């Protein structure tokens, strides 16, 4: 069916170069510059195949397995009734985008491992997916994840550093999590035209399909500007903003915690027993935000460099292939270990996970003990109580248990 709908190109000269048969149909001049695939594959470093086996045959499946398990558990935990905050809506959107991105990375890994860069398919459907949909769907989901994380960071920044602003600052969260994917996939729509399919007829009558770059499109002024804009929107700007906002959140939160500690200790010495817990809360927040920023910077930056430097000349270089595989694996890692970071630094997330699956080997009354201690503490003045309540709600993003069992992010 797809063969009738999609009129793939026939280039006898190119097919003769790829498969070594004279399929030129009367034209004996072989256009070696028609595509970078055959020439690059013929000059391929012998170490590249071992690199593919290691990167896409061993490491990538492990990362994908951990990422799928982690993001599925993320979605299960983040849909619990106590996870109702605005931030959790964006975290669910981020986890869903990350899960889809990892799923779409699986056929990419298979293609790199089995079919290499240009492929050789006997069915048009996988060739069509590789040429037109692979990058569009994969990069689109990655872009949605980046914007979800950026939106989440902005909401945290406004909540902590500008608590007087109207929230949610980015508009209704339910509408935002729908708007972001629509806009992102529209922006990535031109990537559909990056490749075309060549149909080759072998001497034994077998038809095979081969993917080649759309050189006319890739060399156009539009695409040269477009790929730079993509890196700015989805790599450069989010990296700078996420790092800057998280740094500012950590600074403001530490100052706030220090003021609260001084006020509490000067008011009544019996509150000294709460001080270690507040130190732990501050440390978890710092580690959570710091690890998020560093992870994003380390894992996403190489991919931005890769997209700008990708060319036919570089594809034949073994060192570039190593960098390419590393960039792909790092970006996939960024979206695969979010669940494990939440478990490590967010106590509320861990408690919800334990309650959801009712794991008997974990003690469950952690939140209850903390709430009991909080309820037995000496009450503040009415004005201090209102100010403290609002400020704690605005600044607590590390996932500590709150009175009533509600999340405070």
TrEMBL record:
User: Which PANTHER family did the record assign?
Assistant: G-PROTEIN COUPLED RECEPTOR B0563.6-LIKE PROTEIN-RELATED, G-PROTEIN COUPLED RECEPTORS FAMILY 1 PROFILE DOMAIN-CONTAINING PROTEIN
Q: Which intervals of the chain are annotated as region Disordered?
A: 27-46
GO function terms (MF aspect): G protein-coupled receptor activity
* Name the UniProt record assigns to this protein: G-protein coupled receptors family 1 profile domain-containing protein
Name one matching Pfam family: 7tm_1
Q: Which CDD domains match?
A: 7tmA_FMRFamide_R-like (cd14978)
Q: So what family is this one in? A: Belongs to the G-protein coupled receptor 1 family.
Keyword Cell membrane annotated: no
Q: What positions does the domain G-protein coupled receptors family 1 profile occupy?
A: 70-342
The cellular component terms of Gene Ontology attached to this UniProt record, alphabetical and capped at eight, are: membrane
Against InterPro entries, the record matches this protein to: GPCR-like, GPCR_Rhodpsn, GPCR_Rhodpsn_7TM
Q: What is its main location?
A: membrane
Q: Where are its TM segments located?
A: 54-77, 89-110, 130-154, 175-193, 232-253, 285-305, 325-345
Q: Name its species.
A: Hermetia illucens
Lineage top rank: taxon: Eukaryota
Which UniProt keywords are present, listed alphabetically?
G-protein coupled receptor, Membrane, Receptor, Transducer, Transmembrane, Transmembrane helix
Where it sits in the cell: the answer is: Membrane
